[in-house]
What does this fold into?
Amino acid sequence: MPNYVASVGMEVHAELATASKMFCRCAVAFGGEPNSRTCPVCLGLPGTLPVPNQKAIELVLRTALALNCTIAMRSIFHRKNYFYPDLPKGYQVSQYGETNPLGYDGYLDLPSGKRVRIRRVHLEEDTGKLMHLPAGGSGVDYNRAGTPLMEIVTEFPPDIESPEDAKEYLVGLRQILLYLGVCDGKMEEGSLRCEPNISVRIEGSETFGTKTELKNLNSFRAVQLGVAFETKRQAEVLESGGTVLQETRGWNDVKEESFLMRVKESENDYRYFPDPDLVPMVFEESYIQSLRDRQPELPLAKSLRYQNELGLNAYDAGVLTADVEWAAWFEEAVGLGGEPKAVCNWMNAEFARLLNETGQAPAESKITPRHLVEVVKLVGDGTINGKTAKTVFADAFETGKMPSEIVKEQGATQISDRGPIEDAARGVLADNPDIVAKFKAGTTNVKGFLVGQVMKRTGGRANPKLVQDILQEELDRL
It folds into this structure.
């Protein structure tokens, strides 16, 4: 069987973080009583006229800038015509054409070094939602109809050639949307949905195969598994002498396989034409520049800065910048005087562990950056050792007390006087003659046991380095 290579185009739909819908004042929110957030405009009733949501337009433009796109200084809305029960107007307001979308000809650089070209970033409205009723049949909830929706489409021929590439692209794109604040990124609620277009070709061939589209994948795992399954399925169809059809397919998370939904339509089937109820959007360069000036530092740039300026490695910098709130927490701690590498280690280990165990977000925790910086300084100046620091930090996490206060209350200051440690070391050696004999015979790894016993005798408060040194001195005397 020849080696087949996947070609994956990605269409990502992101619900924009606006308070109201795209062309009316109905509220945007997840859930709620079906059809409780509708009006004559989003239901497409006769005699109504749409009014564009300026905030939604701004959010799409900011995304296009973050994705290095060319901005269309004049852009219009189109009607995408098709019939489906969740589309009350009989058409969807969208954008059509190569240079008409708000942004086009962009790219996204990924941490792996791959560059994924972006074909278009455009604005449209979402559809309603079909719901299966307990008594049988289906109902339609139009609460979602008219919600501002941004579509981001990658370039053809695709730069994504594997399930891993597809996942990395989606992770990177979601991070940017969260940093910009344009979408909440809650894939499980459908506010970020991915539709990969997958085809296969024999490795080395310049001829692309027929593509199929997987609809509405709502997790990174589903995207990776879906692309892998569809690549394998198409390769098997071709190897058996069959023909891959241009189809729209769904994804079954339980069975981890795709299934046929319908034969895919062509663009001509939608009969696009300019929406006569909506005037063109025309932008001044000064307005676009003002948006550009307000852009935040994006994840990849922030990660590189952490590596170049703060001395972090690529992995740690990537973990810190994966979440915008986590990165902000780190920067606040460093701004308070925390040593960057130590702050990073504590955040990505102990703090992350405690948050995971309690199901809290950093903002919900009683721990603040000031707490963490104080722990780092207490360890750095020798007031407490690393083991004690973990206990103190856990107590601070639970109570909200400052670490220095906890150390004082518990009398947990590190023992750095030689006298008490020497007494403890001599006692341990006297109580463990067999271990000492093994050490003298060349089994040096037993020293770790002896160190642990000394720490135990001092209540875990002894300076670990001093314990090591004193034990070695005492052993050398024997």
Remarks:
- The longest strand covers residues 4-15.
- The mean pLDDT is 93.
- The CA atoms of residues 166 and 456 lie 51 Å apart.
- Residues 220-239 form the longest helix (20 residues).
